[in-house]
Amino acid sequence: MNPIEEQLYRRLSAVIDPELGKSITDLGMVTAIQAVPRDQSTNTGSAEQTNAQPVYDVTIGIELTVPGCPLSQAITDSIKQAVASYPDATLVPHIEVGSMDSDKLHALVQRLKAERHENPFSKPGSKTRIFAIASGKGGVGKSSITANLAATFAALGYDTAAIDADIYGFSLPRLFGTSEHPVNLNGMLMPATAWGVKFMSIGIFAGSDKAILWRGPRLQRSLEQFLADVWWGAPDVLLLDLAPGTGDMAISVAQALPNAELVVVTTPQSSASDIAARSGLVALQVPMKVRGVVENMSWFEHRGERLEIFGSGGGQRVADQLTRALGYDVPLLAQLPLDPQIREIGETGRPAVLDEHGRLRDDDFAQSFKHLAQALMAAPSVAD
């Protein structure tokens, strides 16, 4: 390589593949760099042209992991920015895009799998905060809270992932508004992405109209596959939308992710809060820390008056009961309103905390989730 080509290679090492979270040079995606001075013999010799920087035509060859990669444009745009950052000459980029052959792709996947181990979130030194969103019964808005909390983390700048661990009642594809199928790289899956959140759900494969009839061992295997067969990179936050109750999946999460922290969702009425407390009491039998309680549907705003349609105090009752039973403070982290507009926005496939451009909204609902996310991250992690 000539000096310009060497400098460009170093700059390209800062271009990150959005799916794999690694440099395109580390991934072997850069196959050629050639910088050729442009013929300027037709210049008139004016002072402006004499003092101008030399111009080079730069050809860069890249091989994407799969043909027609949906992130091709994002990668090529980043390459152009890296080329434009060269200070000592004007570089005119020409990018030739191809795809890896099967042998090269297989070798890359094997290397990534070797780096990752089987479950990247349970290995020592993992910095990912894992929050399992649980409830005692269905219908309390647990999945909606998971989706909005994930979107909030992403909007705050966290690298965020989510797993739909409610196999029978999967909701995340609908709540995130996408039916995107994961890219399969020789047996390693790239998660779907929506609103800045990487996520995986059985609903992506089964379709929204399919019923899942699986018993315990297969449920556990599905979680293991979501953890081990998907390339998550190294997210800051992983959220799991658990099935209601204290069944097989809750036990599987505790076994596979001993560093997971439980967030219990309830509604205000005593019949719901009594059941919700049981989902937190599972921490007496499995190694999970209960981080706190979220009360949903706390009130309905009507002409300036807060109507407590489902009663009041359920979230605090759950927090107090778990604090007494577990022997450490389990706070009431948030109280969220019942608002038809929130439901309507959510049904369009956009988390209600975000505006149409994916930015965190300024209203009370979004700010409640912002404070919830900040409270969760401010608390010491299980690994600390």
Topology order in helix (H) and strand (E) letters:
HEHEHEHEHEHEEEEHHEHEHEEEHEHH
Please give the order of strands in the largest beta sheet. 8-9-5-10-4-11-12-15
Largest sheet: 8 strands, mixed
CATH class of the largest domain: Alpha Beta
Query: Quaternary arrangement of the chains shown?
Result: single chain
Return the structural class. alpha/beta
**Amount of beta strand:** 15-25%
Helix content: 25-40%
Principal-axis shape equals elongated
Counting structural domains, the number is 2
Give the count of helical stretches.
13
- Indicate the radius of gyration in whole angstroms: 25 Å
Mean pLDDT across the residues is 83
Under CATH, the homologous superfamily of the largest domain reads P-loop containing nucleotide triphosphate hydrolases
Number of strands: 15
Can you tell me the residue ranges where pLDDT is under 50 for at least 5 consecutive residues? 44-50, 211-217
Domain MIP18 family-like: 5-34
Function: Binds and transfers iron-sulfur (Fe-S) clusters to target apoproteins. Can hydrolyze ATP.
Organism: Bifidobacterium gallicum DSM 20093 = LMG 11596
Binding site for ATP: 136-143
